[in-house]
Amino acid sequence: MNKTLRSLDILKGIGIVMIIIVHNRHFIMKDMTGFRQIINYGQMGCQLFFFVSGMALCYSWYHLIQKEQRKSFPVLYGKFILRRYLRLAPGFLIILAANYLLNILLMDIFHYSPGFIINRSPKAILANVLFVHGIYPDAINSVFPGGWYIGTTFILYLLFPLLVTLFQKLHTVNRFLIFPLPLLFLCLNHILLKQWSIASEGSLYPYNNSFLYYFFTNQLPCFLLGILLYFQENNIDSNTPHQRKCFSQKCPLLLSIALFLGTSVLAIRLYLLPEENYRYTYLPSLVGISFYWLAVSMIHWEHRKTSLLPCQKNTISHKNRGILQFLTDFLAQCGKNSYGMYLVHAFICWYGVKGVTDAMKYCGYDYPDLTLYCILLLPSIFIVYVAGLYMGQLIGFIDKKLRKPSQ
After folding, report:
1. Which of 70, 230, 294, 384 has its CA 20 to 30 A from that of 126?
2. Rounded to whole angstroms, how far apart are CA atoms 277 and 23?
3. What one-character DSSP code corresponds to residue 130?
4. From CA 42, how far away is CA 364, in angstroms rounded?
């Protein structure tokens, strides 16, 4: 298996686990303690997904170019976007309908407040069905649990062929010209969101989990960092990528690990501080930089792991090697099924956990928040993983049916 692609699967696995970590505490740890805020950093798993998507889409794009060598850019663009939509839409629409029906059942029939209350406005629902909710403040995250990610992602998909073409043209002129692009778009985003906030007289401000925080320009630099690393890892000509000794192998492992840890500590420190000075217009990008260095470290390690294996007996015990292998294999499997896990996780983390806490309160049981959170976390991850596998199989089945006529 391509070591880079396996590393991306592991990164996606880390991302979905981070999202479960933060969403599993919604109805348990409601007090604003420091520990709760550290757990909330798990929301940055979304930035990890944006970074990985930018890199992974490059493989899909160049595979499409190689397969359809004589097709024009507009044809390639149409095929690419249709493929992305058909991969996302069926599962998204199924779970959206399930959430809608569950809301009606719990709220209108049993008069129970569920873990996620859907915005039933026809306009908001239609915006989500059409995948344009990423540009509507009232619909971006109120119809589907965590649905802002899909709304933002699809806009980035629409832009991707243009962005990767820009990278390729600059790379052809001089490979160093691609490096300033994430920084350039970060600066443009900060200016845009600041002026937008001023023009709205403060009614729109890029607070954490606000519309402007979710907006695609705020997540674009993370996405671009993924494209950047792809170009660093591959030798790109006008048509197809050719493998060479990549950047991750040239970069010393200890250096990339140190840069990952340093940028992560800085990002967490800024995340824990009170919001001021439009901090969330650049914090997601800083998080993206930390994940960039994590990816470089992991790809480097995957390349050298095989050669290290014979001498590992002297450095790592057989038991520890087994545990490490299990964790990486599990995270890789989570990464492969991350979309299915994302779709179903709200039923466990929001509906399920709220049901458990409400049942305990109804029965008169008092519980320490942190203890209950720790008890429920691992079972939640496992249940989401299993449910995500079945959801992934359903998505795969639908995908084959949709592609069959064109084959």
Report:
1. 384
2. 27
3. T
4. 31
Torsions phi, psi for 241 (to 5 deg): -80, 145
Q: What is the DSSP string of 316-384?
A: S-HHHHHHHHHHHHHHHHHHHTHHHHHHHHHIIIIIIHHHHHHHHHHTT----HHHHHHHHHHHHHHHH
Measured distance CA(84)–CA(402) in Å, rounded: 12
Radius of gyration of the chain (CA): 22
Residue with tokens 């990002």: 267
Task: Give the tokens for residue 7.
Answer: 């590393």
Residue pLDDT, tens place only, 278-305:
999 999 999 999 999 999 999 999 887 6
The pLDDT tens digits of the residues spanning 34-88 come to: 688 889 999 999 999 999 999 999 999 999 999 988 889 999 999 999 999 999 9
Distances (CA, A) of 381 to 16, 301, 331, 342, 394: 9, 26, 11, 11, 20
**Residue 147 neighbours by CB distance under 10 Å:** 25
Q: How far apart are CA 196 and CA 189, in angstroms?
A: 10
Q: pLDDT, tens digit, for every residue of 175-205?
A: 999 999 999 999 999 999 999 999 999 899 9
Q: Which pair of tokens denotes residue 392?
A: 């992934």
| Cα torsion angle, 237, 240, 243, 247, sign | positive
